[in-house]
Amino acid sequence: MLHSDIIRIAVRNGWKVSITASADDSFYFDFQCRTPGGLPFCFTAELSGGHVGTLVDEIISFVDALDPECYAVEWLEAAGPVTPSRYFQAVADMDDMRARAWLLAFDLSAEAKKERILLDLPRYRLN
């Protein structure tokens, strides 16, 4: 599997992706998109050891930990007093993000079964 395959799958699922390489040959994938309500949302997952399965495991771990109601409360606390409809919209937005991240993990997992190893280094790693 190539980095471009991961990016292609993410884009197909509605995510923008940026990749950061670390000194220990791990890669950090920053997945970004907008919620249905138009707010920016992102999460980061690590791919280590060149194994795409580690990236899938990180995304699934994020999905399992994401509680839409808790995240909605955290989001809205920063905004001050809000109406109940705004709260329910925030919960629905977070639930949608959780579903989209799950679908991303599912699609990456299906592709990773074909090729378990990351086969290329991004161009910037060759400098």
Topology:
Blueprint: H1 3-12, E1 16-21, E2 27-34, E3 40-47, H2 52-65, H3 68-77, H4 84-114
Antiparallel strand pairs: 1-2, 2-3
Description of the molecule:
This protein is α+β, with helices and mostly antiparallel strands and 127 residues long. It has one domain. It contains four helices and three strands; from the N terminus they run αβββααα. A three-stranded antiparallel sheet has the order 1-2-3, covered by helices on one side. A hairpin with a 5-residue loop joins strand 1 and strand 2. Helix 2 packs antiparallel against helix 4 and helix 3 crosses helix 4. It is elongated and about 50 Å long. The two termini are 21 Å apart. The C terminus is likely disordered.
Task: Summarize this entry quickly.
This protein has helices spanning 3-12, 52-65, 68-77, 84-114, and strands spanning 16-21, 27-34, 40-47. With 127 residues, the protein is of the alpha+beta class. A hairpin with a 5-residue loop joins strand 2 and strand 3.
Q: Key terms for this structure?
A:
elongated, 17% strand, disordered C terminus, single chain, 3-stranded antiparallel beta sheet, alpha+beta, 51% helix, 127 residues
Overall geometry: elongated
What portion of residues is helical?
40-55%
Question: What is the averaged pLDDT score?
Answer: 86
For the largest beta-sheet, the strand count, sense and barrel status come to: 3 strands, antiparallel
* Class per helix and strand makeup: alpha+beta
Number of spatially distinct domains: 1
Low-confidence stretches: 123-127
Number of helices: 4
Strand order of the largest sheet: 1-2-3
The Rg value, from CA coordinates, equals 16 Å
